[in-house]
Every structure is written in C-alpha cells, then in structure tokens.
Amino acid sequence: MPATSGECDILSLHPPAEAITALLDGTHADPFSLLGVHPGPQGAFARAILPGAERAEAFALDGTPLGVLKRVDPRGLFEGPVAGPPQPVRYACQAGQHSWDVTDPYSFGPVLGPVDDFLIGQGTHHRLFDKLGAHVIDHEGARGVHFAVWAPNARLVSVVGDFNDWDGARHPMRRRSDTGIWELFLPDIGGGRPYKYRIVASDGTVQPYKADPYALAAELRPHTASITLDAPPHAWGDAEHRAFWEKADPRRQPISIYEVHAGSWRKPGDGREFYSWDELADQLIPYAVDMGFTHIEFLPVSEHPYDPSWGYQTTGLYAPSARFGEPMGFARFVDGAHRAGLGVLIDWVPAHFPTDAHGLSRFDGTALYEHEDPRQGFHPDWNTAIYNFGRREVRDFLINNALFWAERYHVDGLRVDAVASMLYRDYSRKSGEWIPNAQGGRENWEAVDFLRAMNQAVYGTCPGVMTMAEESTSWPGVTQPALDEGERPSSLGFGFKWNMGFMNDTLRYMARDPVHRRYHHNEITFGLVYAFTENFVLPISHDEVVHGKGSMLGKMAGDDWHKFANLRAYYGMMWGYPGKKLLFMGQEFAQRREWSEARALDWDMLDHAPHAGMQAWVRDLNRAYAALPALHARDCEGEGFEWLVVDDALASVFAWVRRAPGHAPMVVVCNMTPALHDHYRLPLPHDGEWREVLNSDAAHYGGSGQGNAGKIVAEDGAAFVILPPLSTMMFECQIKAE
Known about the structure:
Layout: H1 5-13, H2 17-25, E1 36-40, E2 43-49, E3 55-60, E4 65-73, E5 77-82, E6 89-95, E7 98-103, H3 114-122, H4 128-131, E8 133-139, E9 142-150, E10 156-161, E11 174-176, E12 181-187, E13 194-200, E14 226-227, H5 239-247, E15 256-260, H6 277-290, E16 295-298, E17 302-303, E18 316-320, H7 328-339, E19 343-348, E20 352-353, H8 374-377, E21 378-379, E22 384-386, H9 392-408, E23 413-416, H10 419-423, H11 445-461, E24 466-469, E25 496-498, H12 500-510, H13 522-525, E26 536-540, H14 552-555, H15 560-576, E27 580-584, H16 609-627, E28 641-648, E29 653-658, E30 666-671, E31 677-683, E32 688-695, E33 711-714, E34 718-723, E35 727-733
Parallel strand pairs: 15-16, 15-27, 16-19, 19-23, 23-24, 24-25, 25-26, 26-27
Antiparallel strand pairs: 1-2, 2-5, 3-4, 3-6, 4-5, 6-7, 8-9, 9-12, 10-13, 11-12, 13-14, 17-18, 20-22, 21-22, 28-29, 29-30, 30-35, 31-34, 32-33, 32-35
Helix pairs in contact: 6-7, 9-11, 15-16
C-alpha cells in the first residue's frame, strides 16, 4: 500500500542505500512502498526503474505532462516531483536516438479488495477463478493484465514473461498479508503472452519458475508456461438444452455415455498430432448423435505435461489443453454438442497432482497444496502428490475449479476420478505407511468434507449439472444428499456412482467358457442385491482396455464368432440392466486391439461385417433405451425391476422385467450358452402379445438369424419362445401400459 505522507518524505528523498539495491535487484519485499507515485509535503513524488533509459518524463494517462524525472542511479532508477495528485503515470523514455513509453505498474492501486479478502478468509469465495490467475482488465484508466497468485509463505513473488525478458527483478508483486495472495496489474499487455511466477521461499531459495495454478491457457508441451487469455465471451446457443436439464431428474432420464479420449478418437492424416476442438466437433458430435448416445464424456481435458497420463496428472486445472487449439474451441465444442442434443461430461481429478517442477509441488517453498508428511501427501500408485483437503485454500481452489467448468464452459457434469483413493488414508498403503485419523480410523474425513462441500456447491449453484463418482468400495451414501446430519456425516452428495462391482462380476462371467457358466450364475444375479443402494452408472471404461487387459472383444470366451456373439449378448444385458450406461470409444464396434493414446481407433474395422454389425447393435440399443421409458425411467429405483428367471443356472438363462409408471413394460432375456432353446417357457407379467424389439442374434448384427418372427404371445402367465445361442432379446408388452 502507498506510504503515508510523513513516511514518503523520508523514503522518497533519502531511501537507504540497501533499499535501493534491493529495488534494483528485484529483492525488495515491498516495492510499492518505494516505487510509483506517492503523496508528499511538496506534492506528489515519483520513483521508477526504467532499464536502459537516459531520460524520462512523466505523463498522466490522458497525456498531461507531469514532470521530468532525474536518473539517480545508472542502473535505471529515476525519481523526482510530479504535478497533481498520486495517479497512474506513463513515462516517455529516451536513450540516444531511441524512445519508448512505459506505463508504471507501481503507480496503480490494488485490484483485489476487502470483500475478496473477507470471502477468501471465510472460504466462501466461489468466484476465485475471476480473481486469481491472469485476467485482461481495465483498471484505473488503463488496459492490461492483472496477475494474482496465492503463495503465503513466500518472501517475494515476481511475475516473469516475454514482456520483461523473464527477468525476476522487473516486476515483483504486492503482498496482501491477510490472505497470502500476491498481485500486480501490468498495463499495456494483453492476451497471448507466456508467463510464470518467480517465487523466493522464506529461506531465500528461488523456486523453479511456477506455472499459474489458475491459468486459463497454457503452452503446448514440452513448454510449460501459462498464457494470458483475452478471448471474448462465447455467444452460447444452448439455452434450450440447459433449461431441459435444469428441470429434469437425471435419474429418470436416458443417460448413455460415450467415453472419449480426445487425442486418439481420430487423428489427422496431415502429420499433425491432434485435431482441434472445431475439427473434432465436425466429426465426433454427429457420430455420437447417430449412435444414439446422450452424452460424451472426455478423459481429462485440462492441461497436462505427459501424454501417457491421458490427462489424469494435470498441471493446469483451469486451462483446456493446448493440444486441441485455443481454449474457446472447447466452448464451441460444448455449445455444438448441446445444440445437437448431446451433453458433455469431463473427467475431473481432485485426488492428486504430479510433482513436475513447474506445477503445484512445494509451490512457495513449502508443502502448500500437498501434505508435508509423505504418509499423507504422496500417492504410491501414481508417484503423485495428494491435495491437503483439510486446508481451506486448497478446498477452495478445487471447488472453484468444479464451478469454473460448469459456468465458463457449460459442461453438463463432472466424473470425479479416484474417489476411493481420497476416502481412505490407507489406500494402497501397508501398515506403518499411513497416519490414522483423530479417531484412530482409516477414513479421510477431510476428503469427505471436501467432497461434500464440492457437491453442495455444484448442485447449489449450477442447476442441471451432475457429478459422478468413480468409487470402488462400499462407502455408504455416495449418492445420498450431503446433508449435515449427525456428528460425522458420511453421505457424499454425488448424483451418480460408477458400479464397479457390476463391471468386475459380469466381465468375469463373460470370460468363462459357457460350459462352466452354470457354476457362476451368481456373478450376474448378485449385482441386483445392491443395484438400488446408489444411483449407478454401468461403466465399461478406458480402464478395461489398457495395460495388458486387451479389448472387450478379447475378453469374451470362444472362437471369433462366439466372441462377437458373447459381446453382443453382454451389451444387450447391460442395456437392459438397471443403471445408466457408459462405453469407451472403439468398443461400440468391437475394436480388436487394446487401446493406446498414441494412435487413432481402428476405424478400418468397420469394413468387416462383424464389426459393422456390432456398431449397428449398439446404435439400436441406444435408440431403444432412449425411446422406451421402461428401460431408463426407473434405472435407480427398485420398483422398475423384477426377476422373471433368476435360478436357471443349468441353461444359463436370465430374464427380468423393466417397468416405468404409465408405460409398457419391457422384458429382457439372456441366453448365455451356445445352445439354441427352441421351446423355452418364459414367465411373463401379462398375457397377450409381446413385440420382439431387439435380438442380438439377428443376421443384421452378425448373428445366426434365430428369433421369434417379431413377436411372442403369452397365455396363462408364460410364453414358449425361441432363445437363440449367446443372445439377449428384448420384448415390449403390446396389451396395456402399467
């Protein structure tokens, strides 16, 4: 803050020699106390560092001359009286035949104010992404960039970039002691400028130059600087889409998610590594719409340095990756998806962060974002740092990021990665490698409080946006409202939870030779014991087709024909099973190779009939799932499901009915053996005609063409039906709605 007039009289006329040296070296802890324009007994007095200048004249921003400053140090220090009150000034500099103008950043007041300090101190500031980071603004009559960064334990912070030759002595920042935030307004620069922070730790050591935690854009790897962004707000055209989801109950809507790694769905043929967001929009959006998916879910789109991390080790949570072009391209993609009727979800990673030198690791010389003790702050599975969820500022950083993606880029939801690793202090740790909580238990209550607060903020301020937890344990209440009930509430407040048990059990079953499946019947039926304890998503994700796990086709039992038949039957069972659906890219056409981020999907597989048939089957499953409410409207409620055949282990047949009030019921029948049952007695909830809606064995999909000529008729509570080999069939009641 500016010095008082008495202080200024002393400091402006007779600053100590060591203070001048510190100013010129860029090591003065409070450069605003000496630099800029200050009031004094004889009027205003200015002091500025103008490297290379021989003469300097001060002007008001409107061009009014204010006075000529005297160079008092050959290293570029100028000072002298100026006319008028303290105000922002611009210096006209000369050296020989050269002249240039410099607007003095130290003549401007702070941008952040007491309201910001109060809300930050309370931990209730939900607009930090508008305050911290780098923002192009108009301030006190000048246009420039306001930089702000949290580094409470730093001795000194400077902003460096191409605008000051990456010289840490040029632009030390103002410290706001109440919050530990450092800020500086740099006039006359705009968007597209690379920058970092030079941080001097409390012990005097200089940290590796740090990227901005709140940066809105970043350089393309291997470069690591943050980029100032000056992009006009996107003109959104998705009001109808957002209005629908704001009013809808997503549990009762069809949700079929196409999980996509943006860098490898397809690749350009012109030598570039990646398509831009606009190019992806032209291809991916119509494809997903044609395939009947309701949502696209992207693996993390935030900036990250290492391609094989797939974005799960991010160093720029607020910056869409530069791999796909400028950030507003992602906004255009989301808008285009919404106009086409598609939602967009993103994978979000608040569980951990990489220890790259330019990132958050020991940001101000201390364990600022992470824990000091590696038993709490280091993740052994991924060699990453774990966020300190008990620290208010860290929680705010993450919660604000969740709100940022919902507000700035209109994403429809966040799939939160690795929730199980957050909930337990002993996750992937041996005895002695973790610290119990205050009660002596393994629960990470700080992480629980963070997740609850995040979900409360998202659902409280972003109507229509959903959250999904990748959580693989039996933690109670993952999708129960995060209400403050009891002394230690455990409900987390997510909208949905990935059903990892379904995925593990059913894939284990499908890998078995059909002759042995009768002995493992419960691997299909057991999931219905807990199917309605949470709001579940059934995930066949990227994790199932990497790191030696092969492809979905490769997981199936039998020869090639049997593998395709098994996979069609499996998808049919999954789409008829209660829960929302998720399928990773490439599995809709049964890609044979394991997925790799380094190459595009094997689209040439679609030239072969079995793969084209699989794609057609998934397309028809999606369309039926969306069109027939009985298949989706009670995905998360037990009233929508009833077993019809649950104990026919010998024949490996399963059958159940799906219901929704006011709509015709649907019956799903699975025959998980290669045997054709041509006279199978199928119990049905209503007599009369049932239309055969889908049959995975249809020749159109690559099957043997067995079926029921389009319909069956029930009498006395049952019908005799043909069950094709390795098939799933769906029947719709034609008599009445329930």
